[in-house]
Design a protein that fits this description.
The protein is mainly beta. The chain folds into two domains: about 220 residues, Immunoglobulin-like (Sandwich); about 80 residues, Macroglobulin (MG2) domain (Immunoglobulin-like). Helices cover about 5% and strands about 30% of the residues. The protein has a six-stranded mixed β-sheet with strand order 8-7-2-1-11-12. A hairpin with a 4-residue loop joins strand 14 and strand 15. The longest helix is centred in the first third of the chain and has 5 residues.
Length: about 325
């Protein structure tokens, strides 16, 4: 379920695009321990999380109204390889055997889509902790080899229950809605890299966290929104749209499936060396034209007569998480 956005633009703002390092792309603090984050690889190359010693840290407040300390409470190393323009999902790992009313197992449907589970309750400490027990008013920090590459929140401040929608965004009276508690947060497609402190390595130099500056809520936050509005959006994890993918310039860096005939005027066949999980079809504007789910075989056919003539991109996802990109022409 990894999405991308195919962009064909020469906008001057691209000069400052990062697109070179892992960052946090989704965040959800649901009911109980149903909590997790998604990381996105915005590059044309796989990212080996283990080799890069990537870690996610939690800087916590001890209650709903205590200040967030600048001293890290829990940290966990990420393990695995994130394919190009793809995601890695980390979910709270509490299991049913160790669950209690005060520390329940997360929704099993959420745990099922995870690439990695956090450690069990009670496993505190640096590099072996449980950062996915965040409460919605904690600060999360992503590091590579000890260097800060993304920050969700801020430290040395008091946040009432959750980060909110009106400055100074700390959940107090008159500060809008609590939006980092019981909402799924997704990084905007225009965000191409992590949020780092203005003073390198100094978390205390971040003085304000506006969650809506770089993030959207899913579903979008209406005036009548309730706490339960986004708790069943687990299928949206493992999929992120980002402007970093520059379409035709990146195709040479990615593996391709076998597609034929090209061009085609009737039926396009897509063949891979292993079973295909799902396929996404994009037009040249970067819009998802169609998604074909639950394929579970190594060959698939698309009736191209159902689509306007033109250039398309096929993104094929295999069961081993390979990402295959093909440029095709529908006549």
């Amino acid at each position: 379920m990894k999405k991308l956005l195919l962009l064909f633009t020469l906008a001057s703002s691209n000069i400052f695009a990062q697109c070179n390092e892992l960052f946090i792309s989704k965040y959800m603090r649901g009911q109980g321990n149903t909590k997790g984050v998604e990381f996105y690889n915005p590059t044309a190359n796989p990212i080996d999380l283990t080799q890069g010693r990537y870690s996610i840290e939690r800087y916590k407040s001890n209650s709903q109204t205590d200040a967030i300390d600048a001293i890290m409470d829990d940290s966990l190393y990420l393990r695995g390889v994130v394919p190009p323009y793809s995601t890695w999902v980390l979910v709270n790992g509490q299991d049913s055997a160790n669950s209690t009313p005060s520390s329940p197992q997360p929704n099993p449907a959420f745990q099922a889509i995870a690439d990695q589970l956090d450690l069990l309750y009670g496993t505190h400490g640096a590099n072996v902790g449980q950062p996915m027990y965040f409460k919605g008013n904690d600060c999360l920090v992503l590091r590579k080899d000890g260097v800060i590459i993304d920050v969700f929140g801020e430290v040395n401040c008091t946040v009432n229950t959750a980060w909110s929608s009106i400055a100074p965004y700390r959940g107090g009276s008159g500060m809008g809605k609590w939006i980092t508690r019981f909402y799924l947060m997704e990084r905007k497609a225009s965000v191409k890299g992590g949020r780092i402190p203005p003073v390198a390595g100094d978390l205390t130099s971040i003085t304000e966290f506006n969650p809506l500056d770089q993030w959207d809520t899913l579903p979008r936050l209406p005036a009548t929104a309730t706490q339960a509005d986004s708790l069943d959006l687990f299928s949206l994890f493992g999929s992120h749209t980002c402007d970093c993918f520059t379409g035709i310039n990146e195709i040479g860096a990615l593996q391709s499936a076998k597609v034929y005939p090209v061009p085609t005027s009737a039926q396009l066949t897509i063949s891979a060396s292993e079973n295909i999980k799902y396929i996404e079809l994009f037009n040249v504007m970067g819009q998802v034209t169609a998604t074909f789910q639950n394929i579970n075989k190594d060959i698939f056919m698309i009736n191209t007569e159902n689509y306007p003539k033109g250039i398309y991109f096929i993104k094929t996802h295999t069961i081993s998480k390979k990402t295959l990109i093909n440029k095709v022409i529908f006549e």
